[in-house]
Structure formats: C-alpha cells, structure tokens
Write a sequence for this structure.
C-alpha cells in the first residue's frame, strides 16, 4: 500500500501537483476526470487542462508523468446516473476507462450520489445504478481498469445499497472506493464503521482518507447524517477513525493500492497554514503505512 493525494488537496497547498507531491514525499495523485474528459496538468510545462479524449492529450499527460516520476492512482468522476441524459453519463465513464487503460491507471472512482435519490425508491436507485455499471463494464470488457463506487452521500453509505449493486452486477472489476470518513459522517457508530470497512475490504479498489472528531459521548451512538460536520471534521491524526486499524483491515483483505489523502478540515485553518496541515497529514500517513 502506498500514499497518494487528491489533485485539489495538493493544489490547496502548492502551485502545482509536482511541487505539492514533492513536499509531501508522495509519488501518486488522484486526478479529477472532468465532464469534458480533461484533467489538471502535473506541472506547469503544458496546458492548464489536458484533454484525454485525444491521443495527443494522453501523450502529453504520459510525458508529464514520466518526466516527474509520478503515477496516477485513480481517476475521480462526479457522475450522476439519475441524469436525464443517462447515455452521456455511461459514455463519459467509458471514456475515463479508456484513458485509464492507455495510461496504466488501475481504477476509476464512481460517485454513488444520484440527483433526487431520496425521492426515488431504494430499489429503483439500485436498478438504475446497476444498469449503468453493467453497460460500462460490458462496453469495456477488454479493460483491466477497476471501478470503485465511493461510499458518498446518503445511499452510498448504506451497506445494503452497496451489497445490492455488487450482487446485481457480479463483476470482479466492480468494487468500492472506500472513504474512511464517510461511514462515520453518515452517523454510524465508530465500532460499526470498522465492521462495515471489514465487510467491504475485499471489494476495495481505491480509497479516500479523511477524519472526524466527535465528542466522546457521540462516538458510539447512531447520529443524524452529517451532524455538524464543519465543526467536527478534523485533520488525519486528530480524528476518531484509527487509520492504522483501517490499513490493517485492508491489508488483511489483500488490498495493495493507495491510501489517498482527502483532508476536508483545511477550511478550519488560516490559508497560510494549509501546507503545514497537509505535511502533518503526510507524516501521519507514513506512521500508519
């Protein structure tokens, strides 16, 4: 297992992904794959956005990665399979997989959130989501790239939703982007969070790592979703989720990919302190890995 960081987290502290990763001591980044199939550059040597739906763009990114000795741990997508233009969402995901294949990127993060998901029935949401994943996987049956559904939003943090989608699709390429803080954010008691992580560890394809620090009396009770998140979100080392324990669970399940930094507590600190907060996070990552 190795450390990585989200592109926007790195750029919160440094002018370029290259400079930030060098400061953190990481060699891997998760790149956001935008709706026009573009990603951010690794350094300042080229365009401000690199389009990966062209051979030229893929070659540009490949050269930047090789020159800077950096790898991409995953693409991140903010898809919405409740979009009326369902075909766009499917085809965009296929494009991300094709670009990942060309660059040797192992995984694509899939968003579990769907517009209006709380108004639709859970059964309908599962049907739509599974249909999307099946179409994407069928269209990329020659690919080695895995899809990791993040436990994000309301339905994504319900174990029964994840179980049902995995069972309905039945592909070894479909699994989880484990967000280590989101099950806790959803309101699950801390001990239950570890149980859920252990349940889904065999499905893990990619991760996001963040943390939350609740008062002691709230840690082992079922809380409302997102209870005062802005108040209780914390740095990696200060939060309640023990990432050494999480790493041990993942390793025991055979997971050997990245632990990806996504510290959402930066807004609690003055802007000039953000690099030092992220450097402390990096040290915490080294201690748990």
């Amino acid at each position: 297992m190795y450390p990585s960081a989200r592109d926007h987290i790195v750029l919160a502290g440094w002018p370029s992904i290259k400079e930030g990763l060098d400061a953190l001591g990481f060699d891997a980044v998760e790149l956001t794959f935008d709706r026009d199939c573009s990603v951010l550059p690794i350094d300042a040597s080229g365009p401000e956005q690199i389009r990966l739906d062209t051979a030229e763009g893929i070659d540009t990114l490949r050269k930047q990665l090789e020159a800077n000795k950096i790898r991409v741990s995953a693409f991140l997508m903010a898809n919405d399979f409740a979009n009326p233009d369902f075909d766009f969402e499917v085809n965009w995901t296929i494009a991300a997989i094709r670009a990942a294949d060309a660059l040797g990127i192992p995984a694509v993060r899939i968003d579990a959130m769907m517009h209006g998901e709380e108004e639709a029935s859970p059964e309908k949401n599962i049907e739509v989501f599974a249909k999307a994943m099946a179409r994407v996987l069928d269209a990329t049956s020659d690919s080695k790239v895995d899809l990791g559904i993040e436990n994000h939003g309301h339905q994504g943090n319900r174990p029964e939703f994840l179980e049902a989608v995995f069972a309905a699709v039945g592909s070894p390429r479909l699994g989880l982007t484990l967000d280590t803080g989101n099950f806790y954010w959803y309101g699950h008691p801390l001990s239950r969070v570890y149980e859920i992580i252990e349940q889904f560890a065999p499905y893990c394809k990619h991760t996001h790592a963040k943390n939350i620090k609740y008062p002691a009396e709230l840690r082992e009770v079922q809380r409302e979703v997102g209870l005062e998140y802005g108040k209780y979100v914390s740095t990696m080392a200060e939060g309640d989720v023990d990432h050494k324990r999480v790493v041990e669970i993942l390793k025991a399940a055979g997971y050997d990919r990245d632990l990806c930094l996504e510290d959402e507590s930066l807004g609690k600190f003055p802007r000039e302190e953000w690099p030092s907060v992220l450097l402390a996070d990096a040290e915490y990552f080294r201690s748990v890995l």
